[in-house]
Amino acid sequence: MADQKRTTCPYCGVGCGVLVTKQEDGSVQIKGDPDHPANFGKLCSKGSALGETLGLENRLLEPKIEGQTVKMDEALNVVAQRFKETAEKYGPDSVAFYVSGQLLSEDYYVANKLIKGFIGTANIDTNSRLCMSSSVVGHKRAFGSDTVPQTYEDLEKADLVVLVGSNLAWCHPVLFQRLKAAQKERGTKVVVIDPRRTATCEIADLHLAVKPGYDVLLFNGLLNYLAQNGAQDSVYVDNHIEGCEQAVAMAAEQASDYQVLARQCDIALADLMTFYDWFLKTEKTLSMYSQGVNQSSQGSDKVNSILNCHLYTGRIGKEGCGPLSVTGQPNAMGGREVGGLANMLAAHMDFTPEAISRVKTFWDSPTIAGKPGHKAVDMFEAVHKGEIKAIWIMATNPAVSLPDANRVRKALETCEFVVVSDCVQNTDTMAYANVVLPAATWGERNGTVTNTERCISRQHSFKELPGEALPDWKIITRVAQKMGFEKAFSYETSYDVFAEHVALSAYENEGTRDFDLSSWQGLSREEFDAIEPIKWPINNNPKDRFFADGKFYTASGKANMLAVDLKAPKHTPTAKYPYVLNTGRIRDQWHTMTRSGLSPRLSSHLHEPYLDIHPDTALKEGLKKQDLVKVESKWGEAILRVKTCDTVKPGELFMPMHWNDENSAHAVVGRLVNPVTDPFSGQPESKHTPVNVSKFQPDWHGLLFSREKIETSGFVYWTRSRSNGCYVYDLAGLGEPSNWDEYASFLLGEGELLSMEDKKRKHHRYAVIKDNVPSGVLITSENQGNIPTRNWIAGLFDQSEVSMEERISLLSAKPVGDVAEKGAIVCSCFNIGLFQIQRAIADEGKVSVEAIGQHLKAGTNCGSCQSEIKDIIAQATTTSGDKKQVA
Ligand SMILES: Nc1nc2c(c(=O)[nH]1)N[C@H]1C(S)=C(S)[C@@H](COP(=O)(O)OP(=O)(O)OC[C@H]3O[C@@H](n4cnc5c(=O)[nH]c(N)nc54)[C@H](O)[C@@H]3O)O[C@H]1N2
Ligand SMILES: Nc1nc2c(c(=O)[nH]1)N[C@H]1C(S)=C(S)[C@@H](COP(=O)(O)OP(=O)(O)OC[C@H]3O[C@@H](n4cnc5c(=O)[nH]c(N)nc54)[C@H](O)[C@@H]3O)O[C@H]1N2
Ligand code: SF4
Ligand SMILES: [Mo]
């Protein structure tokens, strides 16, 4: 019987159950867990490719101090000593932890306890600040607690699903599949509110391409419409809501002329009224929202403007009916539960005098933070000012993901002591570390995570810890012990931490706090290992949903509706920076690509950093598809490939967030993004930065394939992606090398060098053959249009030998015979490319997603690519005009 483990996917907040089976050759087979209530056996492209990311390539295996490998104990001594000394000398607020929604709850718990209860500062914040903090504020202002009232089952029970600022198809693909199936089954109406026409719009009955930042106005208009049409649930409002009159009055004042409102929101009046009407008439309405709502200078108000409409109609906490904030990271929820945010204490308790003394007593700690600490952006500002002198960064890459990343990098450069715990060797952030600590990662860690619907699942390890790597909770525990806190940090396994976390949730709770795991008190280690996925609260009053009963966690026990007023983004387009830059995710990469970037499959979907730009804007700026473009904001710049498409409006641009200095020359999103934050949540405005664009004209373009990573300092533009058997580099240079042959030899390394030059057309082509296979290929041209497609060349690196004809093909840059190029991979499960799908449409007449599926299998496994296939069919079957591309 094969060795099988149940665990949970380490990527998004859907929190899918995964079955891992060890194969005889040492590899593992990954499958969806049919019994997990999040995914019932399904996985998306990223989850399915987890097996490809488990190798030791690029793993950090040993600790380092100032770049020198040391023993773990020595590294931990230095960390403990420096944090202790700094706190003693300059006060506790001179140190900070910056942590992550990708830690397990147990890791998070220990970090929070050490810094708040023993070092005595609340300077611990998490990348969830950039992700969920506006939702936390919205929830707390409305409900008195950070409670997600709904469950995934509501996707199947709703008659109307409103997706606000969520590209569910790419970012929460398994939930998207559930919604799509429900739509097929019961005809659920779907409304997408997003400035871009994303892949999610595949299933939209209505797409409202709202003006970026204008959601509050849109939802105030809805509240006004509901009020005008008698949709108030008077019993619920009278008994359980405060602030209703003021909220409705504000909505009426601001949003009563729908014609004006539609114009302000840049939406057709008829579409706006259709949405309002559907919402009015559909009791079972589920509003799901994500980063288009949260990542805004008005993120908290956006959240409350949505919650207002649900509270007003009493549509909350019922089957198929309520607001659902979709979380990003696998354990962003767990972080909120333990107190990973600087403004929350622990176990959903705030910094009230009673809670402070309760937690201090529970921890039996010598000190405790008495007030909230710095939120992420401010934290790095305090580092910049020299107020924070020692910072420990765990499981996040702020040099890429924080706004105004150039300033963040400066802050880290000047900081006296920077510790980074990560599982990989090179991240942009690590370049600034004095000490790096090797952390365990998925497959090696044990503990719990909480997903979007409050469901706690186990992550189980199925691999040995490599090198000196240790789980994060253990690293923190050992540092705490070395700081002199042995008694309070005597944990031997993550079970010990979990048991304490459970006990704190129950401590003096008696129903006063939503987060309560009291029924798990006394759970044995074996029972902990056997925990089945389950939604909290886990007490003697279990419930699937919250608030239908009108009981809230505010002092009065009533919910608050908030009068919220539209505030346009602080930085709006100017003559110098005329366009709005929106940023976000692509289907097959995870954040800064440290793990998903290892998978050739995932890298082949979109292999190069790019800018989505409307054809009209491109024309105005003299840009064409495939050009390189320089994008500049007041804060920084990037050089990206142009993708013209009508999924963004004229004047609006989109750039993915994933690339960084490790895999490209100038594509760090954070360098461009403005550091404005929401005044209540501190969440950055990552989706709205004024920028300008200009064509970037290099002297030559190139494509390079190599089995080893190459030296990239000579290129003005480069980006690297993974393929089977080689790395693929897109390149561009300023100035020709004085000797191309020598340059090619330097880049491609030793072996038999084949070459071809066309002086007139400025083509250079080189192939290095070693042991009968290519070990490097370089193709350059003055013109990007002459650069060949990549997959057939990469394919030769995966062969055991190449023929004479194939060698020659490398020099002619044309495949042998009719080796049909696949094109960019659309279906990563079955490795089916764009050109293959286009041929199936043109030559075989396959003009539906189903027909393509039958013919090529594309889209028949995880389904993540079905919306793209639909779009490719639409493009192929429309005769002219600018081609569409799915965003
Ligand atoms: N493939 C993949 N999936 C992921 C991740 C990943 O890295 N890769 N990361 C995970 C994480 S941590 C997160 S937080 C989630 C994020 O999941 P999502 O929030 O769904 O993803 P984003 O692409 O960040 O942004 C969502 C949408 O907000 C829109 N938007 C921008 N401005 C506005 C506005 O003013 N109003 C409205 N209504 N919409 C606007 C953008 O156009 C974008 O399509 O994804 C999770 N899942
Ligand atoms: N412009 C722009 N910026 C954004 C966003 C956006 O939409 N636009 N989105 C924001 C959001 S929502 C998020 S969540 C952030 C994400 O941004 P980050 O958190 O910076 O991105 P990740 O690449 O997920 O970083 C996680 C790091 O942890 C490491 N790691 C993985 N597993 C472990 C482990 O078990 N232990 C340790 N110690 N390390 C581990 C990984 O190798 C990686 O280096 O980006 C934010 N920044
Ligand atoms: S939807 Fe995909 S990335 Fe998210 S948890 Fe499930 S398998 Fe993982
Ligand atoms: Mo996130």
Q: What can you see in these coordinates?
A:
The chain is α/β, with parallel strands linked by helices and 887 residues long. It has six domains: 4-53, Single Sheet (N-terminal domain of TfIIb), CATH 2.20.25.90; 64-130 and 331-535, Rossmann fold (3-Layer(aba) Sandwich); 133-325, 3-Layer(aba) Sandwich (Dimethylsulfoxide Reductase, domain 2), CATH 3.40.228; 579-696, Beta Barrel (Barwin-like endoglucanases), CATH 2.40.40.20; 700-812, no CATH class; 825-880, Arc Repressor Mutant, subunit A. It contains 31 helices and 34 strands. A hairpin with a 4-residue loop joins strand 30 (752-758) and strand 31 (763-770). Helix 2 (72-90) packs across helix 20 (472-482), helix 3 (105-119) packs parallel to helix 20 and helix 8 (215-228) runs parallel beside helix 14. It is globular, with a radius of gyration of 27 Å. The model is unreliable at 879-887 (pLDDT under 50). The structure holds ligand MGD (2 copies), iron/sulfur cluster (SF4) and molybdenum atom. One ligand MGD is lined by residues 12, 46, 131, 164-167, 170-171, 193-196, 198, 210, 212-213, 215, 290-292, 328-329, 582, 584-585, 587, 589-591, 687.
